[in-house]
Batch of 2 targets.
Target 1
Amino acid sequence: MRLAEVIVNRPAKQLNKPFTYEVPDALGVVPVGTRVAIPLGRGKEEGIIVGYVPETVSLNFTVKPILSVLDKTPWFTSEMLATAKRLSHYYLCSYPDALRLFTIDKKELKSYERPKVAWLYPEPFLTVESIPARKKRQREAVAYLLSVGGASYDMLKEQGFSLPIIKQVSELSGVRREEKYRHTYTNYDAREIPDIPLTTAQAKAYAPIHDAIIHRRFSSFLLHGVTGSGKTQVYIKAAAACVAENRIAVILVPEIMLTDQMVTRFVEAFGDEVVVFHSKLTISERYNNWERLRRKDSHIIIGARSAVFAPTDDIGLIVVDEEHDGSYKQEDMVRYHARQIALWRAESNSCPVILGSATPSIDSYYKAKKGIYTLLELPERIHHQPLPTVLLVDMKEELLHGNYSVFSDAMTDLIQRTLEKKEQMIMLLNRRGYSTFVMCRECGEPVNCPHCDVSLVYHRANEALRCHYCEYHAPVPEVCPKCGSRKIKFFGSGTQRVEEELAKRFPRARIARLDQDVAAKKGRGEDVLHGFAAGEYDILLGTQMVAKGHDFEGVTAVGILTADSVLNIPLYTAAERTFDLLTQAAGRAGRGKSEGHVVIQTYNPLHYAIIKSKAHDYKGFYKEEIEAREALGYPPCGEMIHFRMQHEKKDKAMQIATAIVEELSKVFDNDVEVLGPYEEGVNRVRNLYRISVMIRGDTLSDVKKYIYHSWIFTQDGLAIDVDPM
Ligand code: ADP
Ligand code: ZN
Ligand code: ZN
């Protein structure tokens, strides 16, 4: 009897071990890594075969048989299984949860192989006349097929034929049906793209990358270059070398909407070699794309964070563009960092990783300095545009001058000048909505979410107060819910409020807004960006979304309304995030022909993150920041794990958090520092209280080993965040 070890594909910490099942002879050879249907309890589940029990082992319990096999070829390669295992130990998540990251989201106990597209082709003997005249629509469909020589279901639907009609046509003897994998870019004309010669600086950076690609050697490169220094061109060159090796290139980008330009450049260079992966794809589109990679119909995948789990065993290059970006860290379920997974996978696949950024993460730069990564630099912009000039405005002084507006005088000037010159401006504000909060002037109480410990935000569009932590929303109260006073007032300002202010002051300016509220509507965010790129707007106002990655030729001015909002968040990464945000935002100015101007408004004009970003001085910033981290033992000069216990009852959350503190303090006495239990700034979300514990040490690998096998690992309601950001 063949006995397989099967992991149940279900999110549960308690199922963190394989179950033994019999593989009936009728199923033939079923390799490790194959997904199968198994009986579990009274139901059926999807399982993944992760190993076989040696024949010599005899069991003292009865086993059930596997019901069916779901993959023709195993979904998991041995490398994927090994990476999942490594991930589960490093990030302290269960093995099933780690494996699930590699699968297509939903499972229906079906093979993923449904979604090929059906194409219909006319046989030579097919004629319109062979269809009875009364079947008018069928005749029209056949006439269309004959005229185009073959069409997919989608094309027929686009022509206005209903599904029943298409089905009837597909069943005609004169029609041949073929299943195909969809191309992502059906409209793409394969063009010969002129091979742009690299500049000297690019060639120097590219040489060691090329060497690693063709010799199939693991190496990690940190490519540090300001925006416009030609990093993307280096990625394209590297991807071409990888494709020539007949291996897969994985290109990770922060968020797909914002990186349309990256996709466009790759598609221009490689056409159908490219597949794109993002969260808005349907399951069949995902499957289709993965299948194209597996069959090597396409060799390049571009995607956000989760694309690092590409199910392929032959990766020849991984690029992590904007490697410092926060969106690479998943902040729920399994709290992994895509950069870390990229490094592991590259190591197992024997290929290079390129981490690219204008403002590398402190972590990566530290490793480059230590020689763990190879540092490659592109110090100059390709077209030698100068970096923009930056003006810092101290908002405390504005107040002293009696200017209480959200716009300082310098900001107003910049807007005015930009509009006069008919150039474009990007304006950054970190808060969406209309006002930050609504407060009663009589009793001083803000209007809070009933389920979370945060104040509600006023949204003008639907005249409602909304919670940004849960889905709660309510109409604006006419009287204070606490004291009944009518003196309810809006404080602070969000994107909607500023939009209104701008419109009032500059009535002729064409203003577009981009924040999560706009982006939530499908296609709307893209429309705004395209419209702005096409010059339909003068000012693009938005949250961080407008700061990243765009390359708008017409933008000469950037305004940052509050540099302090990120600086004030109580996290050890606050200065790093501020420096990134300001530098990236400023980098949007003056990418075309004209010089760029930036105005930064702040209440902390002396903070090093702000001063160094004004000077475009990454290295200077790094030096100050790493000193601060070293002094405090913060990453990368030490490791941290954050525990967040959530419970409806505050006492209960506190009790469990306290038990964690006591146990870890006892076991690891002098080796680690245990902080807490403590309440977070926002200590209740969706009616669950949050109590935190933080541990810190030079290295925490022993602590992780201990936790993996202790009650802490399986504690319900406990989120463990390794390397928190
Ligand atoms: P980054 O990714 O660092 O922002 P890009 O690769 O987008 O930089 O390059 C900036 C601009 O310079 C782009 O318009 C790009 O087409 C152009 N460019 C890049 N490399 C070269 C080159 N070797 N020769 C000419 N133009 C280049
Ligand atoms: Zn009141
Ligand atoms: Zn809420």
Note: Residues 185-190 have pLDDT under 50 and may be disordered.
Target 2
Amino acid sequence: MKFFIDTANLNDIREANDLGILDGVTTNPSLMAKEGITGQNNILKHYVDICNIVDGPVSAEVIATDFEGMIREGETLAELHKNIVVKIPMIPEGIKAIKYFSSKGIRTNCTLIFSAGQALLAAKAGASYVSPFVGRLDDVSTNGLDLIQQIRVIYDNYGFETEILAASIRHPMHIIQCAEIGSDVMTGPLSAILALAKHPLTDNGLAQFLADHAKGNKSPQ
Ligand code: E4P
């Protein structure tokens, strides 16, 4: 399973990238605003900064909600860097835009997916990635992982090449369960990725090893 980080914070992106396990980045307008990145020029520059850190797909979301606007914005984003994937919302105009970009060989990530029907439409339009929001479904008492499973079955039934990008990942168990189901990609915060490495028995065991080593290697008096 590929690991993407879901943030526009350059320090977090660098830290995840330095681990050597990062495959890509997803952003959204809320994440950009959270970092204080505003104004068209700053936003475009920030995407390039991210692309210069990570050698992998970087999702950059359009703001327009009409077909022509999405095409204009998406083409500008795609020209920024070879790593850019144009992120398009799951609305009827978005489906048309995904179809258009797919015919031009421009990669897309269809975002705000909350049902299997939406995922099916995105795949038929030729989306490169589809982003079901696991955590936001959990927030409304609906099992987000059930949706990942449903989409996996549908895509496998018909051999769709669209990759399932489990989004809105909140904690390490989400990541593990997505891997069990066979999600192609997950995107989550640095905290969820780092939490995978944590285990108290690892910490205790390491402390013991180091203490025993120190006992046997005391410097001569
Ligand atoms: C998807 O690409 C979104 O950026 C993201 O995963 C949303 O996550 P959230 O529900 O934690 O805001």
Note: The beta strands are 2-6, 24-26, 58-61, 84-89, 108-113, 129-132, 163-166, 185-188.
